[in-house]
Amino acid sequence: MPKRPRTRKFSQRQTSDDDAVSSREESANTRSSRVSANPSQSSEIEKALKELKKTIAGQRSAATFVAVEEMNAKKIVLPLNHASADSSPAALQQLASDCSPATFGRGSQDILDPSFRQAGKMEPANFATTFHPADLRIITLIERILLPSVINEPASSKVIPSSLVEPWTLTIYGQLDALLHNPQFLPNGGVLGIYYAHAYAHISKVANTNLPLTLKGSDLVLYSVLHALGATVSIQPVLEVDKGDYNWGHGLETEDGELVGEQLHPYHQSSSSTEYDPLDQIIRDEWPHSKMTGITWLTSQKHWEQALRYVAYGNEPSVETSYSTAAIFATIPNWNKRSSSQ
């Protein structure tokens, strides 16, 4: 078994004015830092980030499926690359059409409600795949990630115990560790953002309690690796709004940044309207958040859910809905703090 490296823990508070996220301009311009970057060093950082994103993206897979009503096998190659009919949106739509309606969990109930969620399923007898997890050592990784080496962890804990996995044995651990040891990487500190690869019910009333414990796959790996590397890790929602509407009237129409919730908020239907209150005021009151700039995103958005509904006024009143997605945020200290903790 690989030897566990010495664990580093940063003395880091939750996001603050001093060590939180710098603006994108400040992150790119390190004149205020004691460390100056040259073009070759910047290129090395960009290359390392590119390799990290490639690792997160993972490998392509292929699957063959057969509909219940007919026995003509259909093939689909994922992710879609549009190189052939087997890897096209039409092939994916065919797979979705051949699935039968499936129930899903909402709260404590198992329900079938297509108006709320279009869930589908295909019986194992009608599905085959050319992908073998043993070929890519996935079975070995599953054993490392999901099988606990310590079985007496408290079941009510809201934090994923680092003792349940061996993140230092994974490739991505070495990649992130190398970046954190590089003085040119976020010299002033910053935040890494990772949108979830899997869909979770992040707008449910119990999400704050249950979501950290239900992470799976690459989401679990990244959360565990960042936690093991000493970063301050949190799970927070990101609200999608029209930035022009949100900043309208404040002279901030071109201001960049993400609206990050203070915690995982349940879905909320507001009685407020833009006839009496500006949109930014409604969101501040109904969906507590902070505006975060300079996030270094390692993945792109995938899964959106309805987060906030309100009445909007233009030529006539209408009901508008804002959507949110959940992400892992890792607060990275500045280089001075990182180097003193090594």
UniProtKB/TrEMBL annotation:
Q: Tell me the segments the record calls region Disordered.
A: 1-44
* Ranges annotated as biased composition (Basic residues): 1-11
Q: Where is the composition biased (Polar residues)?
A: 29-43
What is the protein's name according to its record?
Uncharacterized protein
Annotated organism of origin: Aspergillus flavus (strain ATCC 200026 / FGSC A1120 / IAM 13836 / NRRL 3357 / JCM 12722 / SRRC 167)
Classification lineage:
Eukaryota, Fungi, Dikarya, Ascomycota, Pezizomycotina
